[in-house]
Write a structure and sequence with these properties.
The chain is of the alpha+beta class. It is built from 13 helices and eight strands. It has two domains: 77 residues, lambda repressor-like DNA-binding domains (434 Repressor (Amino-terminal Domain), Orthogonal Bundle); 195 residues, Endonuclease, Chain A, CATH 3.30.870. Helices cover 54% and strands 14% of the residues. The longest helix has 18 residues. The protein is elongated and about 70 Å long.
Amino acid sequence: MTYSIDRARHDLGRRLRELRNSAGLTGTQLAERLAWSQPKVSKIETGRQTPSVAEVTAWAQACGNTGTAADLISRLNALESMWVEWKRQLHGGLDGIQSRLASDEERVRLFRVFEPMIIPGLLQTPGYAHAVLESVNRKNGSASSVGDAVEQRMRRQGVLYRRDKRFRFLVSEAAVCHRRGDRGVMMGQIDRLITASGLPNVSLGIIPFDASPPYLPLHGFWIQDDASVIIETISAELTLTHQSEVEQYLHVFQMASSGARFNGEARATLKRAAENVGG
């Protein structure tokens, strides 16, 4: 992952270490001023422990530079807001997650989506979505209503027909071939992709098995306008909003796109995949 919670924590720790060094304090001296243990100072500076707002404020005060507290707290808040634990979200059910996504997508005008192993939710058929969401339940040990969540996901797809929105979907051939549900589900899903690729505001690119783009990401991500990147991990949802990080993902999306087939070539790939599934 290009940018992770670990890197963000390390960046905050580095900034705090620089503040201590600027004050001419050793780690032990700072720990004494704060009445902390020296290992705690070390863990924070090396990104092994995330400080609280009160601890960041006390750190800045101990270093005689309270003016930096606001920036440091802003960094801390950004770090904490990156993660939204799946378990917490699931308290509202899978359909609750879909409702939140639909609300978030209302404000987005340009979607750039990359998925290496799954069809993006906005392009899924009910059968395919049911299989995917059932696997989410199994992974989380949850009994959330899959049927309600599928209905919400299908309602979300109404944004595809909005003239004020544009979509650039990029998937690997593996995402098309990896089976979710039975043969009939996959046939229907491939047909759905062929149909969706013909929408005037939708671009669908498929990276074939034999392609070798300059860089191929190992995880999926959704770039919303030029403002944020959403990444779903096994345990959480990560939101990146720092401009430099968004730009990295835009660059990676472009690199991966250079190895993809679009329009007629993409539909030809989909038809071959359908023949393989049907056979």
